[in-house]
Amino acid sequence: MKDELQYDNDNEISNPTDNRPFEDILQASLGRRKVLMGGMGLAAASFVAAPSLASAGHRHWPERKPLIGFTPVALEDGSGAMPSISADYEYDVMIPWGEPLEPSGPAFSWPPKAADQAKQIGIGHDGMAYFPIDQKEWALFGNKFNRGNKHRRGNRHGMLAINHEFGGNHHVLGKSAPESLEEVRTSQHAHGVSIVEIKQGRNKWRQVESKNARRIHVNTPVTFSGPAAGHALLQTPAGNIPLGTVNNCSSGATPWGTYLTCEENFNGYFGATNKEQTWSPTESHNRYGFSRGGFGYGWEKFDARFDLSNPDYRNEENRFGWVVEIDPFDATQTPVKRTALGRVKHEGATSVIGHNGRAVVYMGDDQRFDYIYKFVSADHYKKMLAAGKSPLDEGVLYVARFNEDGSGDWLPLTLDNADLAARFADMGELLVNTRIAADIVGATPMDRPEWTTVAPNGDVYCTLTNNSRRTEADAANPLAPNPDGHIIRWHDADEHTGTTFKWDIFLIAETTHGTEESFASPDGLWADPDGRLFIQTDGGQKNGLNNQMLVADTTTGKLSRLLTGVYGDEITGIAVTPDRCTMFVNTQHPGNGDPSVTNFPAPQDGVTVPRDCTIVITKKDGGIIGS
């Protein structure tokens, strides 16, 4: 998620509290708790996998043959200008940045025109979800689907919803800054979300014409729902209607078949142009990281919506930082920003059905020393839908506190808390300032919470990209410092709806050189129904590796490299067909947009601009991905 505009923006600190940070809790906890070495025969302490959360009382994975049998990508093959994949697998490429949204649309040319880009696939491919063309089939997804269902239509035909997180000016425009509103519009139209219809034919997936294919970008009409909808903090003096979504990073899918796209580093698209008066950031501005120069996109110079110093557009910035719900099967539906899920730098929105049928959504806030959240709907999700209510509009938003003894508490962010009632006039104000509310209740500052995933046995996993402040090593915590991150795991009481949980550390990444399973900076994450954990990385790989996707066996700790990307990219986004025989992943900002580094997906010529794209992975024997 880095280019010339965004170096280390996730590593900045905007949390001013003295809440006890997670790394302190982790040191104290792991010093007393048993953590097993992964079963890989490593001489160096490069992989640490915790035993299962037996104390939580949940069921364990059933005994079965080894889950991972594929030949891993060798260390020496994991770098270069083209991807590498296991010898047991093959890949194809589809929907690169600039591809027509529909086959009959405007063809890619560089740099693109604003009007064309609005009808083309965006840049910065990131989180995504696959929706089988048969909705009933999709409702069973992740439960009892297996290879026996391979003849179902949805395994070969569906809608793909894909996020477009960011594209640097050099990559999109061929220059360091826009020089006109037209160029700003080009950049804006490259962000957002694409919905495309795809189909497999003769073993090759392709994009097909669709009445529901569409782009949702920075200038697309959107609406708000939930407690903050209509709030004064979401109104501007100019009276302009709500438009757009931006910096769409990770994502999720709901049990009722809709797509959740997450707005992460939205602050960086705003700036302040007024040189005659000093722009004075508010407490909220500071807590969300707004600054005069933003990330350097320069939108504020030509589009007043993004000028923090323009009084007519006061509060425009509050319209970003939300989870947005999109219907992938109905292009006439307006995207909805669900304010009950809070306003943070959302990194994922992972849904699961909890006790009494309530919808639960787990979310990370991707900035150093920010928090992990969950939302629990007020009632059974089907009952709410039948009554014409969204399960994401009514319920309770919680933030996590991790305790040294391996227990944890979900702290409600409601006005029943006297400290919150004293600070906020209503729930709308609280949700617009979710980070400040979480500070007040004493949540545990984390080390860049990234993706979350829920395994079928109820365990929840979350990637934490780094923990560089650790200063003392011990047997269970052998790296000091630990700049390469780890994966935390917890198990909630009452089937995800309780206010307490048990937690442990599933995996600690390593910094030693020369080990075949070397990796760092875990980011993308998905738990499959059999007990495999797919792990994607973003930056800082060791041993000359490009970013990569690995597969972990959660019962044994075995770790195998399935795919590596190209120089300068990020491997991100995971979506699978119901039979799990096709997986879609993304390469983001290959070569950081520099054609002298890579021209992927085009053949190497040193000239052609590299393009973000979706990589379609299949196993040569037709088997389940990861096996």
From TrEMBL:
<keyword id="KW-1133">Transmembrane helix</keyword>
<dbReference type="InterPro" id="IPR008557">
    <property type="entry name" value="PhoX"/>
</dbReference>
<feature type="region of interest" description="Disordered">
    <location>
        <begin position="1"/>
        <end position="20"/>
    </location>
</feature>
<feature type="transmembrane region" description="Helical">
    <location>
        <begin position="35"/>
        <end position="54"/>
    </location>
</feature>
<feature type="compositionally biased region" description="Acidic residues">
    <location>
        <begin position="1"/>
        <end position="11"/>
    </location>
</feature>
<dbReference type="Pfam" id="PF05787">
    <property type="entry name" value="PhoX"/>
</dbReference>
<protein>
    <submittedName>
        <fullName>Phosphatase</fullName>
    </submittedName>
</protein>
<dbReference type="InterPro" id="IPR011042">
    <property type="entry name" value="6-blade_b-propeller_TolB-like"/>
</dbReference>
<keyword id="KW-0472">Membrane</keyword>
<dbReference type="InterPro" id="IPR006311">
    <property type="entry name" value="TAT_signal"/>
</dbReference>
<keyword id="KW-0812">Transmembrane</keyword>
